[in-house]
Amino acid sequence: MGNNFIGLNELCLLSDVFDLETEFNIPSINYDENFLLEKNKTHLLLLCVSSFKNRNPVTIRNIRNIIIERKEAPFFYNQDWFLNESFIDEELTCQWILVSKSILRESRGCEPKEIKKKYPLYKAIELTYAFFVNYFVSGGEKLWNNDYVWCSDFDDKGDQIYVGRYTDASGLNADGFEIHRHLKIKMNYGVV
Predict the structure, then answer these.
(1) Nearest-CA neighbor of 155 among 86, 80, 58, 59?
(2) Any idea of the CA torsion for 6, 8, 12, 14, to the nearest 10 degrees?
(3) Of 81, 143, 167, 180, which is least surrounded by CB within 10 A?
(4) pTM of the entire predicted model
């Protein structure tokens, strides 16, 4: 996987940003070697860790708190609608994930219902962790820099979560890793 691999050794390099717990039994990589060879230029193979050394779980809330405290790039986009949503406190599980470093072309512009039929979706915590860990390990690479990625999570109103798009290509909005929800049309939408 070359530079597209983040294992225990790479995670240990992040102690000044994310002091991740590194004393645990590393799970087996659950992907076939030939499959990984096919994906080694386009995908990132990443070891997910479930807690920080201070025993706090790896959650979106805890990652966000660390990033905000740093006061330097990378940033979270300045919004807080999700702070009372349960998905931001979902804990990352110790596992290997393989994520595409860019949006799959055939999935662009598709409705989330159609996407779910064809592709497995990652949790928002997995993609948030992947974005920030990769950023620091790679020296500044921004996964999905101008794109959004559908997640398997929903907010408390049943709207699907998506994350990504660090840089606003139009330059109108501030930079930052974004977390949004796709508003479903419900019975209280209409015209007057």
Answers:
(1) 86
(2) 30
(3) 81
(4) 0.94
Are the beta carbons of 184 and 158 closer than 8 angstroms? yes
Of 54, 45, 50, 46, nearest in space to 24 by CA = 50
User: How far is CA 109 from its chain centroid?
Assistant: 19
Three-point CA angle 56, 149, 10, nearest 5°: 45
**pLDDT digit of tens for each residue in the chain (192 aa)?**
889 999 999 999 999 999 999 888 999 999 999 999 999 999 999 999 999 999 999 999 999 999 999 989 999 999 999 999 999 999 999 999 999 999 999 999 888 888 889 999 999 999 999 999 999 999 999 999 999 999 999 999 999 999 999 998 888 888 999 999 988 777 777 767
Residue 11 near residue 20 (C-beta atoms within 8 A): yes
**If you write DSSP's letter for every residue of 126-150 in order, what string do you get?**
HHHHHHHHHHHHHTS--TTTT-EEE
Q: Which amino acid is at 151?
A: C
Residue 135 makes CB contacts below 8 A (sequence gap 6+) with 74, 141, 142, 143
- CA distances to 27, 43, 79, 134, 172 from 48, rounded to whole Å, are 10, 15, 26, 11, 34
Q: Assign residue 71 a region: left if phi > 0, alpha if psi is -120 to 50, beta otherwise?
A: left
Nearest-5° angle of CA 175, CA 181, CA 187? 145
